[in-house]
Design goal:
Glutamine--tRNA ligase. Plays a critical role in brain development. By secondary structure, this protein is an alpha/beta fold. Among the domains are: 6-111, Orthogonal Bundle (Helicase, Ruva Protein, domain 3), CATH 1.10.8; 119-178, Arc Repressor Mutant, subunit A (Orthogonal Bundle); 496-567 and 684-774, Ribosomal Protein L25, Chain P (Beta Barrel), CATH 2.40.240; 570-679, Ribosomal Protein L25, Chain P (Beta Barrel), CATH 2.40.240. It contains 24 helices and 28 strands. Helix 10 (146-156) packs across helix 11 (162-177) and helix 23 packs across helix 24. The N and C termini lie far apart (79 Å).
C-alpha cells in the first residue's frame, strides 16, 4: 500500500509511471523525494505543479547532505528558487558550505533569489548575440550553431529562464532569416578537420579502445590540465561528491593550506615486491604528469608494509623506471618512515572505540559472508593491552590482528589494520613484528604527506569509504581519492606470480625478457620511454578499464624511432655476391645518410667492395610474377652506392643450394632504372640478432574460456628466433647497450646488454610499418 501511495505521489510530481517505478527501486532516493514532496505540499497547501516537481526531483537525486533538504525545499516550495540554474547554484553552495549555520543573505545572493529578469532584458541579450554573429548567420542560415547564441545570452543573464531564452532566439532568428528553405533542411555536409600540426611527440592518432575507435588529439599534459577543471582545487576537498565532512574538516583544511601553500601534491605508491609493467606506466604518467601539469609536486612512496615479499632490487628497479620515463620525484619516501606515527594512531583508534584486537584466523575471514568477530565489543583497555602484546611479540603469526570497525562498499566488514609478522624488514630490521595493511596505511601516509589528489586505479573505489572514514575517525587531514581506469594489453600477462611461473618454466629468461610487458623488458627490447608516454597519452585519462592491442603501442614506438634511430644496413640470411667488374682496385667509401628524409642530421661511411652480401630472399632463380628483386634478366640497384648489379652466374654447392652469385655492375644513370633497390653489406661485422614475436597465441591467455589449459599452454613456440651469424655494416661497431638503429628494410633494432666487445647482440624492437615480406 505504501508503495502505491509513493507511486501516486511521484507521478503527481510530473514523473512518468516508468520513472516513478525506477525511483522506488532506489530506497535512498525515494525516501528523500518522498520527504521533499510531503514538505512542499505542506508549505503550498495544494498540489505540486510539474515545474516545482521537476525541481524537487532534481534536488532529491543530487543532494549529498540530507541535513539541507528541508532548507532547500522551503526555497523551492516558496518559488524563491524556480529555475534549474538556481537549483544548481544552491546545491553547489550547500556542498561548499558544509558547516552550520548557513548565511541566508549570502546564499540568496549566490543563488539569484529575488533577481527578476524581464522579457526586455532577454530580448536585448539575444539581439546582441545575434548582431555579433550576424554575418556568419546570414551565410550559414539554419546550419549555424544556435547553441552559441543561447550560450552567450545565458552568460549575460545568469538567472534567466532557459526556455524563455530559447524561445527568443527562435523568434529573432526566424525574423532575420525567414522560414526554412529546402536547402536549410538538408543535412550539413561533414567537413574533415585539418590535422593539427605535430608539435609534441604525444600528439595522438586514432586508436581502438575495447574495439571502438577513439581519437585523442591532446598531449598528456593538456589532458591532465583539463582534468584539473574536474578535480577539486587544493583545500576545497569538501566540494568533491561523496567527501565526508566533520566539525573539524574546515580547520584541518586551513592547516593543510598553510603547509602546502595551495600546491597540488600527488604520489606514486608502488609495492616493492615486483617489477613495474605497462599498466604502471599509465599510473606514473598520471600521478607525476598531473602534478607537473598543474605546477605541483609528486612523491615516490614505497609501500613497504609486507617484509615477506620485498627485495632491494625492486626498489632500485622501480626508481630507475620512473626516471627512465622522464620523471623526477619531489621526494622518495617509504611507508616505513611513518611506522611510529602509524602505530600511535592505531592506539588512538582503539581508545576512540573504533578498533579492536581479534583472534579470528585468516581462513575464517575469507569468503563473501564471514562470521562477525566475537571480539568486536571487547573492552577498550583490553584491546590496548593486547595490541601492546602483539607489538612485543607475544602472539604467533595469525593468532591476533587489529581490526577497524567499519563496513566497506564491497560489504567487507572490519578490515584488518595490523597483523603479526616475524620477517625482518629491509629498512627497520627486527624493530617491528607488527605491520600495517594497505587499507590502514594508504590514506594515513597520504595525510602525513598532505597529498591533495590521491590518484588510484578503479579497483580501489571499493576502499574510498574506508579512506575517508579512517582519516575522519582520527581527526587528521583527509585527502581526496580519485579513481581512473587500469591500462591492460592483449596477448600479455603482467601479474608478478604468473611472470615468476613463466621464468620457472623456462618460457622467458627473467623479468626483463623482451617478450614481456614489464617496463624493464620494454626498455631492453628497445622501446623508447617517449613512445610509452605517448601511448599513455593516446589511451587518454580514462575512467573505464582499457585493454589495448599491442600494435597500437608499437605504432607509438615507430613514430619515435623513425625520427631518432639512425639508419644502418644488416643482412639476416647472407648470400655472397661477387662483382666481377668492380670499378676500383680497393673498396669505395660510401656516404649513407643517418636519416634519408633529413640530410641535415648527418651521415656515416661504409665500405663498398667487390664482395658484398645481400639477403638470400632478395634473389630468386625462378621468380613468381611481380617479383622485382634480383633474378635472371632483372637487375637491381644497391642502395646508396649509385650502382646497379646484374646476374651473370649462380654458384651452387654439392646439394644444389645456391652458395654465391657473380654479377656485373654499372652506374645507375648509365641505363634503365631498375625496378627495385636492395640493402647490402660489405666488409661487415658478424652479430647475433634476436627476432621477437608475441609470447602468447591468444588475445586473453588468462581467460579459461579462450585458453582452457591455462596461460602456460598458450605459449607461442615461435616467439623467439635467434640469428647467430647475421651481418651488419661497420658503422655500428662502437654501439653501446640500448643504442637504437633502423636496419633498412628490416625494422628497428636495439643493442642488447648481452653484447660484449667484438660480439654485438641486437633485439628487434618492432618491424617497419610495411609488410616485411612485401616485394
Amino acid at each position: 500500500m505504501a508503495a502505491l501511495d509513493s507511486l501516486s505521489l511521484f507521478t503527481g510530481l510530473g514523473l512518468s509511471e516508468q520513472k516513478a517505478r525506477e525511483t522506488l527501486k532506489n530506497t535512498v532516493l525515494s525516501a528523500q523525494l518522498r520527504e521533499a514532496a510531503t514538505q512542499a505540499q505542506q508549505t503550498l497547501g495544494s498540489s505540486i505543479d510539474k515545474a516545482t516537481g521537476t525541481l524537487l526531483y532534481g534536488l532529491a537525486s543530487r543532494l549529498r547532505d540530507p541535513r539541507r533538504l528541508s532548507f532547500l525545499v522551503s526555497y523551492i516550495a516558496s518559488r524563491k528558487i524556480h529555475t534549474e540554474t538556481q537549483l544548481s547554484a544552491a546545491l553547489e553552495y550547500v556542498r561548499s558550505h558544509p558547516l552550520d549555520p548557513i548565511n541566508t543573505e549570502d546564499f540568496e545572493q549566490e543563488c539569484g533569489v529575488g533577481v527578476v529578469v524581464t522579457p526586455e532584458q532577454i530580448e536585448e541579450a539575444v539581439e546582441a548575440a545575434i548582431n555579433r554573429h550576424r554575418a556568419k548567420l546570414l551565410v550559414e542560415r539554419y546550419h549555424f550553431n544556435m547553441g552559441l547564441l543561447m550560450g552567450e545570452a545565458r552568460a549575460a543573464l545568469k538567472w534567466a529562464d532557459g526556455k524563455m531564452i530559447k524561445h527568443e532566439v527562435d523568434m529573432q532568428v526566424l525574423h532575420l532569416l525567414g522560414p526554412k528553405t529546402e536547402t536549410d533542411l538538408e543535412k550539413k555536409p561533414k567537413v574533415a578537420k585539418a590535422r593539427p600540426e605535430v608539435t609534441d611527440q604525444r600528439t595522438a592518432k586514432d586508436v581502438v579502445e575495447n574495439g571502438e575507435a577513439v581519437v585523442q588529439t591532446l598531449s598528456l599534459m593538456e589532458q591532465l590540465r583539463g582534468e584539473a577543471l574536474k578535480f577539486h582545487k587544493p583545500g576545497e576537498n569538501y566540494k568533491t561528491p561523496g567527501y565526508v565532512t566533520t566539525p573539524h574538516t574546515m580547520d584541518l583544511l586551513k592547516q593543510h593550506l598553510e603547509i602546502t601553500g595551495g600546491q597540488v601534491r600527488t604520489r606514486f605508491p608502488p609495492e616493492p615486491n615486483g617489477i613495474l609493467h605497462i599498466g604502471h606506466a599509465k599510473a606514473i604518467n598520471f600521478n607525476f604528469g598531473y602534478a607537473k601539469a598543474n605546477n605541483g609536486i609528486c612523491f615516490l612512496r614505497f609501500d613497504d608494509t609486507n617484509p615477506e615479499k620485498e627485495e632491494a632490487k625492486f626498489f632500485t628497479a622501480i626508481y630507475d623506471m620512473v626516471a627512465w620515463l622522464g620523471y623526477t620525484p619531489y621526494k622518495v619516501t617509504y611507508a616505513s618512515d611513518y611506522f611510529d606515527q602509524l602505530y600511535a594512531w592505531a592506539m588512538e583508534l582503539i581508545r576512540r572505540g573504533q578498533a579492536y584486537v581479534c583472534h579470528q584466523r585468516g581462513e575464517e575471514l575469507k569468503g563473501h559472508n564471514p562470521l562477525p568477530s566475537p571480539w568486536r565489543d571487547r573492552p577498550t583497555e583490553e584491546s590496548l593491552l593486547l595490541f601492546e602484546a602483539m607489538r612485543k611479540g607475544k602472539f604467533a603469526e595469525g593468532e591476533a590482528t587489529l581490526r577497524m570497525k567499519l563496513v566497506m562498499e564491497d560489504g567487507k566488514m572490519d578490515p584488518v589494520a595490523y597483523r603479526v609478522k616475524y620477517t625482518p624488514h629491509h629498512r627497520t630490521g627486527d624493530a617491528w613484528c607488527v605491520y600495517p595493511t594497505y587499507d590502514y596505511t594508504h590514506c594515513l601516509c597520504d595525510s602525513i604527506e598532505h597529498i591533495t589528489h590521491s590518484l588510484c586505479t578503479k579497483e580501489f573505489q571499493a576502499r574510498r569509504s574506508s579512506y575517508f572514514w579512517l582519516c575522519n575517525a582520527l581527526d587528521v587531514y583527509c585527502p581526496v581519492q580519485w579513481e581512473y581506469g587500469r591500462l591492460n594489453l592483449h596477448y600479455a600477462v603482467v601479474s608478478k606470480r604468473k611472470i615468476l611461473q613463466l621464468v620457472a618454466a623456462g618460457a622467458v629468461r627473467d623479468w626483463d625478457d623482451p617478450r614481456l610487458f614489464t617496463l624493464t623488458a620494454l626498455r631492453r627490447r628497445g622501446f623508447p620511454p617517449e613512445a610509452i608516454n605517448n601511448f599513455c597519452a593516446r589511451v587518454g585519462v580514462t575512467v573505464a578499464q582499457t585493454t589495448m592491442e599491442p600494435h597500437l603501442l608499437e605504432a607509438c614506438v615507430r613514430d619515435v624511432l623513425n625520427d631518432t634511430a639512425p639508419r644502418a644496413m644488416a643482412v639476416l640470411e647472407p648470400l655472397q655476391v661477387v662483382i666481377t667488374n668492380f670499378p676500383a682496385a680497393k673498396a669505395l667509401d660510401i656516404q649513407v645518410p643517418n636519416f634519408p628524409a633529413d640530410e641535415t642530421k648527418g651521415s656515416h661511411q661504409v665500405p663498398f667492395g667487390s664482395t658484398v652480401f645481400i639477403e638470400r630472399m632478395d634473389f630468386k632463380e625462378e621468380p613468381e610474377p611481380g617479383y622485382k628483386r634480383l633474378a635472371w634478366g632483372q637487375p637491381v640497384g644497391l642502395r646508396h652506392t649509385g650502382y646497379v648489379i646484374e646476374l651473370q652466374h649462380v654458384v651452387k654447392g654439392p646439394s644444389g643450394c645456391v652458395e654465391s652469385l657473380k654479377v656485373t655492375c654499372r652506374r645507375t644513370d648509365a641505363g634503365e632504372k631498375p625496378k627495385a633497390f636492395i640493402h647490402w653489406v660489405s666488409q661487415p661485422l658478424t652479430c647475433e640478432i634476436r627476432l621477437y614475436e608475441r609470447l602468447f597465441q591468444h588475445k586473453n591467455p588468462e581467460d579459461p574460456a579462450e585458453v582452457p589449459g591455462g596461460f602456460l599452454s598458450d605459449l607461442n613456440p615461435a616467439s623467439l628466433q635467434v640469428v647467430e651469424a647475421a651481418l651488419v655494416d661497420c658503422s655500428v661497431a662502437l654501439a653501446k647497450p640500448f643504442d637504437k638503429f633502423q636496419f633498412e628494410r628490416l625494422g628497428y633494432f636495439s643493442v642488447d646488454p648481452d653484447s660484449n666487445q667484438g660480439q654485438l647482440v641486437f633485439n628487434r624492437t618492432v618491424t617497419l610499418k610495411e609488410d616485411p615480406g612485401k616485394v
